[in-house]
Amino acid sequence: MKGTIVLVYLILILTAACQPDAGNNVDVGYNEDSGEHARHASMKEPFRKKLFILDSALISLQVQDLNDPDFGAIGCRHCNLYHTRAAETVYPFIYQFTLDGNTAYRDAAIAVGNWLIRQQEKNGSWKETPEEWTGTTTDQLLMMALAYPIIQEHLSNKERDSWKEAMRKAGDYLLEVMGPEFASINYVATTAATMAVLNQVIPDSGFARKAKIMAKSVVKKMDQEHCITGEGGRVFGIQYGVDLVYNMEMSLWGLALYARITEDHDVMDKVKRSLARHLFFIYPNGSIDGSWGIRSNKWTGYGGATSDGSQVLFSMLANEDPAYRTAALRNLEFLTKCMKGGIVGYGPHHWEVLTYPPCIYPTFAKAKNLAMAHAFCAQDNGPVTELPSEQNGLNLFPTLDVATIRTEHFHATVTNYGYKDPRGPKSKYMHRPAGGAISNLWLKSYGFLQASSQTEYHRWEPMSFPEASDLICLTPRIEFTDKRGEFTNLYEFDATSMHRKWDDSIAVDIFGELKNRDQKEGGIGYSYQYVFKDGSIGKRVGIRFHDASEQVDVIEPIILNPGTSIIQEDAETVIISNADVMVQVKLLEGNASLSSGHEKEKYWSVYPALKGFPLTFTIKPDNDSKEAEIYYEFRVLSNEQ
After folding, report:
1. Where, residue-wise, is CATH 2.70.98.70 in the chain?
2. What CATH class has 392-639?
3. Selection from 419, 412, 179 nearest residue 296 by Cα
4. pLDDT per position as a tens digit, 520-569
5. In the predicted model, what is the mean pLDDT of the chain?
């Protein structure tokens, strides 16, 4: 990469405020602490404002030297190269030009599009530099095809021919290779949209036919709750596994765009049914709960690090349910808190836990999402209503064995999702939280009180996973270690769960075995019982030393937001507080020692970028008994309204 690009990026980072882009927060007409909602809000105006911020950051990274062979490319300071996928900015750039008439964005779109064409392989594909994967050709082609009707009048005759030839070659490549047998299901869904759009630019019955085949292939992969399977490993050539973030930020909007263009009402009906279920995983603070999905290794809080975004999906269906408007705007507000200088980080604490700038993937992915959201908005102004996560109750997802629970002060996800990849610990999908873990816990006036990260951090995709060593998992868990290694409930993918609701309480019971990364039992069984009430969460942990007698630790990492104080008052009590809320964690029953802060410097995560602080209940085996049980409670002591 040329030094000029590095310099521009360094200036961008060094001149950014130390805090996230708070001055550019989105007005969603909602105050999280008061619970008050505005009656109406615009979607397109917040989208426009945020798109401009992202585009401004991205255009500053573009190679401007006409004599440079990479003229037009977008530089990535983190990776020190030019991602071919960053050329997907061709659409947000030209769309920005339609919004404000600034010819700099028109010229930037032309330059980056021409650069992308120069990178095209002979077979019509694009490699996802620096890797060899070509499935992302569908993403690049879609952005070119969306941009072309706007940009064509600004191209020379030679450029127009070049663009159309490149798009046709890419389309022909996808005709040949794309399908569930070639790529994960989100690529198939995107290709349905890509081919539908391409057919409008370069009419071809083959493109139209491929679009329909791809859409129907994805719909067939929906389970009984309309969750799309097919993001995980292959068994007899077939992919299984659900990831909520990739469903929302990739597959569903791809299907919706296809259905809108082709007037495929059956597919659109399936999308509507699916989104209605997925909406339950939008948290009150606007975050998308990707904690439990099989691609949770890239979960950022606002969504995924390399998936596009949810605004385009909610925007296309905004006329169906006012809660979709709420979700789109609330999520945009959460995203803003993860940005600095127009660059999107890996989570709320990115600039606290990571000393280097992020890869630009999240930034250009969210830019293209917002451009499409603005362009395809079904209803701009309309009512803003509560999200399902703001309504007290228990919501079960039986095909997943996942539950969400909302009380007055808490919103939680309990995951017992049992998907298994035959590759076991060698699979990037098998280090997600399971075994009845609370994988996400939100507290009013605090935000994330607890969250999850990879049980073991690995750089599954070197481009997407930064170097980080000696991290300790942020997920609440039960574990023990002996000469055989570590055993935890997080690797228990065969646990049993029960859910109950009565009066003002919701209970979840989990029964399983502590297992190692190979999913082998270690001789100690466990049970969890969570009891959720308006102002408290009780946790009863049972341990059965049936074939091993080792010290067991029950670890409760707390997300250490700015302004948080965590103080251990005595041997049974810890107080967590900020300016607005105080929570007491107290051991109420059983024989255990409570400690706080052990190896606290290791409790942080890349995805999502968060900093944690551990509380540990240590249970030692009793020679006179093969069982032990403790009960402790998270109780809100104050919560200013």
Report:
1. 392-639
2. mainly beta
3. 419
4. 999 999 999 999 999 999 999 999 999 999 999 999 999 999 999 999 99
5. 94
